[in-house]
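Recall the central idea of this unit: under ordinary conditions, the amino acid sequence of a chain determines the structure it adopts. In this exercise we apply that idea directly, starting from the sequence alone.
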Amino acid sequence: MRASRLSLKNLLRRPGRTAALVLLTAFLALSVFGGSVVVKSLQSGLDSLRARLGADIIVLPGSARSKLDFQQLLLQGTAGAFYMDAGALEKVKEVEGVEVAAPQTFLASLKADCCAVKVQVIGIDPDVDFTVRPWIEQSYTREFGDMDVAVGCRVTAGVGESLRIYDQNCHVVAKLAETGTGLDTAVYCNMDTMKRLLEAAEAKGVSHKITSDDSDDVISAVYVKVKDGYDIEKVMAKLNAHVRKTAAVRARSMFTGAADSLAGISRTVALLAGAVWALAFAILLIAFAMMIAERRREFAVLRLLGTSRRGLSGLILTETALCSLAGGILGVGVAALVVFPFTALIESRLSLPYLTPGVGTVLALAAGTVLATVLIGALASAWAAHRLSRIDPGTTLREGA
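Accordingly, the structure predicted from this sequence is:
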């Protein structure tokens, strides 16, 4: 009888013991695969946000909360709006070292009779924008027409439908690819469309005017690309000195908190996974020691029937591999059912960009997890296999006589 067939019969003959080994290895695989997917998704989300932001410096209104509001808008999709005089754009362009200055204007819609859904509207200048426009062009290469909008993947409106914002009907011309950031819940338009929406919002009592000069011509942020050869920190200092009532911040600083949180989560997951592996390994060692004691007579009979020491070791290793393989597949499957359907909940709880990796990456993580589960089972059973090779069948059977 082949070793694999005999091993399978042995496992089926003791369903309780087999189930315990399978569940133990399944818990190991669940923790490793689930943790790996979450950490990889967070890393992908942060990388996606870096790619979408794409600026060296961001000039914001000088209010104390502007940077926090901006981070919440990017990371969590929190709707908000803050404004500065549009004249700040020209002053930014005058600063030495500025290669491109691209304005954006924000408007938070209301979930009321005037608006179909509550979304963040972002107006861009397609002629100079170098952050959002390349992303939009992946789905829509034509120019925005009057009241045309592109929507993030989590906005319910589809291409060809209308989206009502402050009683203005906007035409959805593109649905954008997922980024795993707050940008997925936003609506994008050109500056002419944004001016109409701002006027409509003003008519509804949602003011965007700046108290100091009551200006109607406003923007929310200026994205700056620094010329090659210029020091970003020095250009940022010049912007802060030259452009009044604004605050220039380095784009990289926007990610500091998110990167620190991701590093903390990664360390926590690694520690938990290590603890689970150590615990699982110890439990498997105990389980195999108990199994050897329980099955000593069985193995002694097999030795008398002509099974070699290597054959006995192969038998126990095969049983372990089958249990570990079943547990690994079960654990990965349960983790997938727990993690993937609740990505939005995980993202909201962590308050960080979260972008599920592609199918190829997920399959690679799953295969690696199953392989690692089988390997740890093999390592734990190797000690048991070594003890089996030292069993003296005659002595064992006489002891049990």
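The CA atoms of residues 158 and 171 lie 10 Å apart.
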